[in-house]
Amino acid sequence: MTKIKTQAKIFACTQSTELAKNIAKAYGEDLGNVITSTYSDGEFQPSFEESVRGARVFIIGSTNPGPQNLMELLLMLDAAKRASARHITAVIPYFGWARQDRKDKPRVPIAAKLVAKMLETAGATRIITMDLHADQIQGFFEKPVDHLFASTIFLPYLKSLNLDNLTIASPDMGGSKRAYAYSKALESEVVICYKQRAKANVISHMELIGNVEGKNVVLVDDMVDTAGTLTKAADVMMERGALSVRAICTHPILSGNAYEKIENSKLEELIVTDSIPLSQKSSKIRVLSCADLFADVMHKVHHNKSISSKFIM
């Protein structure tokens, strides 16, 4: 009996359409046809307008809040499962709700765990994501998780700048592991910012651990939300004698008045990926695409090839 080859099909959630188009182009496949019907009360229904029976389906969608982004991904996973797709891979460039990865005080949810269970229940048989806020989130899944590092995108760019006296900085204690990994790859020094928060997104105090005088500093973080930490850190470092301060952040959430803060800050530039589409333009923000990275990994997954090189920081 002739073995039937599983076909790969790529579909996009609304919030990630542009990125998905670029991923599909890099993969060498056309983006699948999906239409979304919306009721007058806001309820919506995605529909695959082509057969996915027996196929390996890749559904691309970041789950940044609001909740409709996560809900759309869940509905598309469920639709693929009920349409008899053989493999259903949720490609989540930005895994939202990841900051709630533990109980940091009584009577709060662990949202990242809840989202993991919802994705699996909806039908995901594999997860591909990038730069999780906390590595342990991989353990919340019972299905395989391919956790990619955006360092494969950022490191070549940083090396191309040819910065003298380069120093890598972490904007908080939690990001020190990431900063040390970058410093090892770039053979540079490391400094760490110690911050205290009055409440979520509000910094009450920041101290710098290390010397930045005469250095070109690159802050490294997994996401930038209100940009309060990055802009505050840049101010502190320039006051301490840094020559320049840049920042690389994988996921540009950029809520509230983040764009204004960045424009008025002492940051030379903010380098991000297109895991989340920017809501406005900024002269200080440079976007590096993650499309080739995801396309390469998806191709390797479909053809059962090793992707371990994408896990190396």
TrEMBL record:
Where is each Ribose-phosphate pyrophosphokinase N-terminal domain found? 9-123
Q: Name one GO biological process term.
A: 5-phosphoribose 1-diphosphate biosynthetic process
Which Pfam families does the record associate with it?
Answer: Pribosyl_synth (PF14572), Pribosyltran_N (PF13793)
Q: Which reaction does it catalyse?
A: D-ribose 5-phosphate + ATP = 5-phospho-alpha-D-ribose 1-diphosphate + AMP + H(+)
Query: Which superkingdom is the protein from?
Result: Bacteria
Gene Ontology MF annotations:
ATP binding; kinase activity; magnesium ion binding; ribose phosphate diphosphokinase activity
Check the record and name the CDD domains matching this protein: PRTases_typeI
Give any Gene Ontology cellular component.
ribose phosphate diphosphokinase complex
Quote the EC number. Answer: 2.7.6.1
Record PANTHER family: RIBOSE-PHOSPHATE DIPHOSPHOKINASE FAMILY MEMBER, RIBOSE-PHOSPHATE PYROPHOSPHOKINASE 1, CHLOROPLASTIC
Q: What protein name applies here?
A: ribose-phosphate diphosphokinase
Q: Which organism is it from?
A: Pontimicrobium aquaticum
